Structures are given as C-alpha cells and as structure tokens.
Amino acid sequence: MKSNTWTIIKKEFARFFGDRQLLFTTVIMPGLLIYIIYSLMGSGIQKMVTEGAGEVVTMRVENMPESLAPVIASMDSSLVVVQQPVTEADIALLEDKELNAVLVRFPERFDEVVFGKNEVAGEALPNVEIYYNSTNNAASRVYMVMNTMLGNIGRTFTVNVPQEEGQRFDQATDESIGAMIWSKILPMLIIMMLFSGVMAIAPSSIAGEKERGTIATLLVTPMRRNELALGKIVSLSGIALLSGISSFIGIALSLPKMVGIGEAADLGFNYTTSDYIALLLVILASVLIMASAVSLLSALAKDVKNAGTMVTPFMLVVMLAGLLPMFQNGAAESLGVYLIPFYNSIEVMTAVFSHELAWTPLIVTMVSDLVYTGIAVWGLTRMFNSEKVMFSK
What's the burial of 265, exposed, middle or buried (CB within 10 Å: 0-12/13-18/19+)? Predict the structure, then answer.
C-alpha cells in the first residue's frame, strides 16, 4: 500500500515538475507578481505622499511681518517668497489653475498685536488669510507647511477665519474636486470592464478552436494567414468594444443619479462632446491592443483552461495600470508615456475625466496602439503558420 502511494506521489510530482509552464504559473509567478505589484504600489504611494516636493511654488505675501520673514523664507527650499499685495484677481487665477502659488495676507500691525506687550483691549484677534487650490498638490503641500508653522508659534491669532459671508480660502471648486475624483476612479473601472469583455471571448475563439480541433479546418481554407489573424483580432475587438461601451453607458447614466442629478455638473461630471469622442477613440485603441495581446497568449495555449492561466499575469498588469491614476496628480505630460501600451490609454482617460484633454497625447496613443496591433497581427500570423504551435498537445 505504501509503495502504491509513493508511486502516485512520484507520478504527480513528475507531471508537475515536468511541465515548465505549470511550474512557473503555480510556484514562481505568484511570489513574483506580488513582489512587483507591491513594489510598484509602494512607489506610487510614496510618490503621492511626497507629490509636489521639489516643484517650485510662489508664495505671495502681503504685509510680511518682520518677525516671520526669515522663517517663511527658509520654510521650503522649493518656495519662492515674494512680498506684494494679494488681489482678488490673483485669487481668481488660483481657482482657474492659472497661478501656481499660495497667497498669504497678514493683517497690518501683526507683530505689534501678536508679539507686543501692550495689545489693544477688546481688539479682534488678527486673522491670517491663506489662499490656495487643494487640487494642486505642490501648493497644497506648501499650505500645510505654512499652516503648521503658524500653529507652532503659539500666539493669539487666527488662521483662515472667514471675515465675510462666502469667503473661501481653498479655491478648488466642487467641479474641480469632482473631476479629480472621477479621473482616479473611472479609468480603472473602464479598463477592467474592457478587459473582462476581451477575456470572455478571446480564449475560446483561438485556444477553444485548438481544443475542439476546428482550427485545422480554418487553416486549410484558401485564405492568407494574416487575413485570418486580422479577422480574429478585429472581430474580438468589436465584440469587446460593444461590451465596454455598454458598461460605460451604464456608468455614465448611473453616476449622475448616484450623486444627484442636480449635483452631477457641480461635481465635475459635465463632459463635452469632444470629451466623449476622445473617450470612444481611446476605448477603441484599448480593446484593439487587449484583443491582440490575449489572442497571442491564446494561440500559445493548449486549451481554454491553459489560456486562462496564461492570461492571468497580463490581467494583473492591466489592473495595476488602472490603479496608477490614484497615486498621481492628473495625466502625465511627457509624450513618451503615451507610447506604453495600456498605460497610455489610462493616461488619456485620466486627462479626459480631469477636463485636461490634449489631442496630441491622444493621437500618439492611437498611432502607437495601431502599430502594436499590427505587430500582434504579424506575430499571430507566424503562429498560425507554425504547426508546432497550432497542434501542440
């Protein structure tokens, strides 16, 4: 009995360790993926915490107190302190994100009232006004440092107490805050819905035909293999696109109801026709590159189950790309980023939802994804020409 048990154990071990793909996906891949994902997420969180460090921010100070001038000047190495009046026009520029600055207005006779020995009886506490835009990470960081510094003085004065009705110190509007939230959440939802649509059909379209043996019939038909490869990718992309569009329509219709129809526009969900066109174009580019990648992996797989195993690491990479907008401030500015498959689509979606769409990054994304799709068609054609790949058991 013991010998029979040992025989079974040896047989299963031999099968497992003899299959390199199974060994990799079962033993090596989980630890490797956890290490990569957690390392990248850790870097993203660290970047989010230190966002704005090193970026030059101007602080315009009105009525600079002599006692605090040296402290403010040395508060941050990336801070440029300018002594000049704070105007309503400057505050309006903060709201429109046209001014990368923090505006500080000290009351007159600040030193005399706060640090003097003979304060005027009954006089209201001096109030320091700090104007900033919380959607600007660098300026928001400077504001927190300034607010903390003032709090550590330990004297009798107030900070950012409204002196009149409607006075706002944080110039970020509900619309800009809402747009920032949508730009961090919706790209991940859309990219995962698109990938789910591709995953539902692509493995069975190629690996399934290999498993059923019907791929041989297709390969002997009088058509060129590149036509077969292109037809597979385009058809899979079309079906996945319909699934993605359906999911996006559901999101677009449900979100205004979730936040309140009257409040949707106030929370940044007021996108234009050009925004929706750009979003549709980037969704199309995304499903093309997704269908291409999954088709290549499915062609290498022996059956549908094996294809699902091979696509799992790719799915995790896509999920990670969808999480990255949560750790950054708006879309990337470098055009080189838009040459990276999948990540470029995420960046364009982030720009659309944050109302910062630029057409050049979109064009670069579309062109690069079409080039990658062409490369995938060429690779899938080579696989269709290989009997070793198509008829592997």
Answer: middle
Residue type, 225: R
Is the Cβ–Cβ distance between 40 and 320 less than 8 Å?
yes
pLDDT in tens, 213-250: 777 677 767 777 777 777 777 787 777 777 767 766 77
Per-residue pLDDT tens for 277-331?
888 888 888 888 888 888 888 877 777 777 777 777 777 777 777 777 766 666 6
How far apart are the two ends of the chain, measured CA to CA in Å? 33
Question: What's the CA gap between 315 and 309, in Å, rounded?
Answer: 10
Q: Does domain 57-172 have CATH number 2.60.40?
A: no
Among residues 321, 298, 319, 320, the alpha carbon closest in space to that of 310 is found at 298
How far from chain centre, in Å, is Cα 27? Answer: 30
Q: Are 297 and 307 in contact (CB under 8 A)?
A: yes
pTM: predicted TM-score of the whole model, two decimal places: 0.67
Q: How far apart are CA 220 and CA 165, in angstroms?
A: 79
Q: Check if the beta carbon of residue 240 is closer than 8 Å to that of residue 291.
A: yes
**In contact, 324 and 44? CB cutoff 8 Å:** yes
Domain boundaries, the chain: 57-172, 175-390
30, two tokens: 């989980």
Q: In this structure, are strands 101-105 and 79-83 parallel, antiparallel, or unpaired?
A: unpaired
Torsion of CA 218, 220, 222, 228, to 10 degrees: 40
Task: Select from 280, 260, 255 the least CA-distant residue to 362.
Answer: 280
- Residue-wise pLDDT for 49-95, tens only, equals 554 445 677 888 888 888 888 888 887 767 788 888 888 888 888 87
